[in-house]
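Moderator note: this is an archived Q&A kept for reference. The question asked for a predicted structure of one protein chain; the sequence and the answer are reproduced below.
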Amino acid sequence: MNPHDLKKILDDLHHQKLTPKQAMKKLATLPYENLGFAKVDHHRSLRIGMPEVIYCPGKTIFQIKKIIQSMNRAGHSVLATKLSKDNFRKLKPSLPKFSEYNEVAQTLVIKKNKHRKRTGLITIISAGTSDIPIAEEASVTAQLLGSKTETLFDVGIAGIHRLLDNLEQIHKARVVIVVAGMEGALASVVGGLVDKPIIAVPTSIGYGTSFGGVSALLTMLNSCAPGIAVVNIDNGFGAGSMAHRINILGDSIETE
């Protein structure tokens, strides 16, 4: 249930295109649907502007399928994250034909509004090729929510000229997401070069003393460059969500 759908129900009720009983049936799953193992939050779009997202690790195929079916019935777009290729294959027979699986990002998207216009620009930068899956997760998330995105991969500080060659394009973005593992220094470098808000995403990529992304996380948190916010390790979804919220603020500013 999103604001547009709720308004239509109320308008139809007001104009007697729906009976009160029919309206109650449509609203029956507000604010959530209890599946026993999950309480699917159908009211979330009304509260925060985006539907609930399915985090797949720890869930059975049956549970993921039932949650997707619940969201489909309620008219939500679906985003499932950290969905392995093997589990996608098991789910595929039960999914709508227009489902989109991104093997690199490990995301599943089922769009309800296929022609939604995207706005602004979020540029997503990865330090290395191994960081691309998290960068792709951020991109898929932001696009589904309605933001335009572009990606710039493998421009880490070991060859900083690769980043500098693309500065003109980076400056066009409203928001920049920087995804980096190893020591995570790329976010600070970008923070010293651009005047846009930067969301830093540490990844678990790196050798032993990267401690599964903790080294990159601490580097980003301790950055001396201003204007950098940090999300959790491998949290491309969180970065994409936050970047989208910042990005759409630009629309309201430009129309004032």
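Archived answer notes: The chain has two domains: 30-110, 119-255.
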